[in-house]
Amino acid sequence: MFKDNNLVISTLLGSCVAVCLLDSNNSIYGINHFMLPAKSYSKSNNNRAKYGVDAIALLLERMIYLGANSKNLKAKIFGGGQVAKIQYSNIALENIKLAREILSKEKIPIIAEDVGGNYGRQIYFCAGGSVYLRKIKNILPKILY
Description:
Layout: E1 8-13, E2 17-23, E3 28-31, H1 52-65, E4 74-79, H2 91-105, E5 110-115, E6 120-126, E7 131-136
């Protein structure tokens, strides 16, 4: 979360998804980056923000705490690329679906998105709500001999 007009937050996305929330009326902006849609096992994990269902809720809670008005919120979503050649893995698509479902349930319109595909993304989220995006074809490291 930030209100500083000079701040830029950057993240690298493969199958992960980032949700950017904007309350331009109050100049409050926030971003998350989650790896999995939801925790599917009972093992304890202290990093709740790793799961989309929690990461989006935590972002919303924090923005409201900082003075954002839920009626002013707009969203931008990025990521969910099928970058790993893992057969039968739909994590990227499940991450995208979850983000869209939660934002719809919360009545937060998605005003921009760049999701899916078979490439990664580097995004730069700037105060003021602008997002700059760079597509990355080969996100997985190559093994050198």
